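We treat protein structure as text, and this decision shapes the records that our systems exchange. The tokens are whole numbers drawn from a learned vocabulary of local backbone shapes. Below, we set out a record of this kind in full and without editing:
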Amino acid sequence: MSTPTSNQPITAAEAITLSGLLDLREQRSPDAAAYRQFEVDKNRWRSWTWREVHREVSRWRQALAGEQLHPGDRVAILLANSVEWVCFEQAALGLGLVVVPLYTWDSPENLAYLLTDSGSRLLFTGSWEQWRPLAPHIPESAPLNRVLLLKDSDQVTAPVSGPTFTSIVPWLKQSEAHDLPRPRVCPDDLATLVYTSGTTGPPKGVMLSHHNILSNAEAILEVINCTAEDTLLSFLPLSHAFERTVGYFTPMMAGCSVAYSRSIDHLAEDLQTVRPTILISVPRIYEKVYAKVQRQLENASFATRALFALALRIGWRHFEITQGRASGSMVGEKLLHPLVHRLVAKKILDRLGGRIRLAVSGGAPLLESVSRFFLSLGLPLIQGYGLTEFSPVVSTNIPASNLPASVGKPLPGISCRLGTANELLVKGPGLMLGYWQQPERTREAIDAEGWLHTGDQAVMEEGRIHLRGRIKEVIVTSTGEKVAPADLELLLVADPLVDHAMVVGEGRPYLAALLVLNQEGWQKLAKKSGLDPQAAASLGAGILHEQVLARIQGKLHTFPAHAQVRRVALLLDEWSVANGSLTPTMKLKRTVIEHRYRETIDSLYEGHEIPAARMSAPWE
């Protein structure tokens, strides 16, 4: 039997548990680069080897062992991506504790709900300033009795009742006194509660076991090649199942190194510094780059626009040839491709670090035109599909077989089929244990045969999954026409003028849309229309609405008459995770937005009874 090497991914069977995965990684490549992180107080990047991380995790585990917690108890983490995040989780998992990751930008009310619903006994957070707005919302009956602070603070005042506080520096120094034996943890034990960031209704705690996550990471590595030579730049929150499995446990399994970005505001600079070989992101990041390029092209010369169009045309054909979907290039194209790549594509790719060999999009649908844009530039961008309830990856394209219109084929070991109304059903080892303390919701999601009902409509062609929207997110107009708003919204936000879009029209005679305009695009459009961009009244100017409607109707020209947007509300408001308008994966929280803009939406229908034509939608 051959001895495993550091170049071989660790299997789920070898790791057994998520903490066992780190133990094995340290054994196989102790001196290899594990993590990289910026230290603000020293104004420098610091690197950790697997040996150093493993040693730190041992200290954290010993300290946690002194907290009188028992296997199965829940501990929560409210912290930005960091080595400390990893150390805390690995320590907790090694003691059989259940980790509850929280989003740093979530509202205090929702955070309090999650802490209470999960029954978390300990919270690890960044500072007293992060805890203070949360404290008033924690009920006295909550089991939370300890708060760990990453940063020291002179403002900490011990409350009369409630949890006790300590910073991790003295807490870790006392760890030598708690060198207790590690409890036995099994693969099917509950490892984490990941709360879904649903677009409607309260969050549900998805119960995932050690084996759920390990099996998913292993399946990913069976189709995607990752090695110790790869570096990832992590900027999506580790609180999300997508980043946690794909950007944390999968690299650990493969031996890749991970650098933690300082913040989204520093992302462009960090890309230049870290120069990752693998980039994992939600569609919004790719859409922002795409929109910025489109805005720049609007003001470029005819020659520049023509050169860019030529680069995209030749680049796309080159991509299709490599995929075996087109015949060989003509001599002229072969000669031009490296030239236009150097003049056009390389400049954009260099902004992403210049050496990305794999870019991944997940968490939400990626518009095909955006995907084609990057593929034409030579960025090897693949799209996948998953759900938190499945740990989370269900399917993915791969570089050698990449069809941007699809979300690829199911991962090895995962079965998919279509149910009623073409709902995608999935089954496999990544399937959750259920929803925390919600057996009825669990039975609704997982049928008697073990199939997870995803709520997504799909088409299966040649083994690939093509998504067709959410079953429940369908607008029914007052004339009975049915429209999937997400299909329209994807096209609307592809316009560089639009940052966010939400289509409305439930029970109304026609469709309308709320459009959040890009600040830079708004400035240019207003001045071009002879309007003052600083005046609030300018957003309601009739001439402006006519221009925007003409612009977006050009985007939607392939849709039937009843699926056309007839009126718009132009906004400069911020839609963000922090103010509750978006989920952490940048999906619209429709009920929140509808409530916030109910008067604006009503005004879109006052005195404008535009009839919606009776035409069948293409998916009916």
Q: What stands out?
A: The domain at 12-280 is CATH 3.40.50.12780 (Rossmann fold). The longest helix spans residues 302-322.
